[in-house]
Design goal:
By secondary structure, the protein is mainly alpha-helical. Helices cover 55% and strands 0% of the residues. It contains 7 helices and no strands.
Length: 144
């Protein structure tokens, strides 16, 4: 079973921090989150799940993909990935949380499922889109 999250990209200004303050738009995770077309790949991910309404709902696509990106970018274990996400409000924003939570968002064993569900083809297409978005933003900045 899969429940699609809100189709609208969460703005970093709306991310709730219980201790006050705001996320910086210059943070690398905020900038990377802006480059990824999360909503465009959500349907491909959701199609893998039965729509019977039985069983525990799957974790959202943004959480799955974001966790895999964090793991690879930081070159850490599955367990450390879960712990880093728990501790870091920027990483929680990156994986699609609406506000900071001081608890594990999922068990490290879920990373195995994330890797199985997000195919090589999907990752390749996502990488191409990230690259083209980065090129567009760079070109836009150089014109200004």
């Amino acid at each position: 079973m899969y429940r699609q999250e809100s189709p609208n990209q969460l703005n970093f200004e709306d991310f709730y921090l219980p201790f006050g303050g705001h996320l910086s738009p210059e943070n690398r995770w905020v900038r990377l989150a802006e480059l990824i077309p999360w909503d465009e790949f959500e349907a491909s991910y959701a199609d893998q799940f039965a729509q019977s309404g039985q069983g525990a709902p799957a974790k959202p696509f943004r959480l799955a993909l974001g966790s895999l990106i964090i793991k690879e970018k930081l070159d850490i274990t599955d367990e450390e990935t879960v712990e880093q996400i728990r501790e870091n409000h920027y990483l929680q924003y990156f994986v699609g949380m609406e506000g900071y939570q001081d608890e594990e968002l999922f068990d490290p064993s879920m990373m195995v499922h994330f890797r199985r569900r997000i195919t090589v083809e999907m990752l390749s297409e996502i990488n191409e889109r990230i690259h083209s978005e980065r090129v567009k933003k760079t070109a836009s900045r150089s014109r200004n």
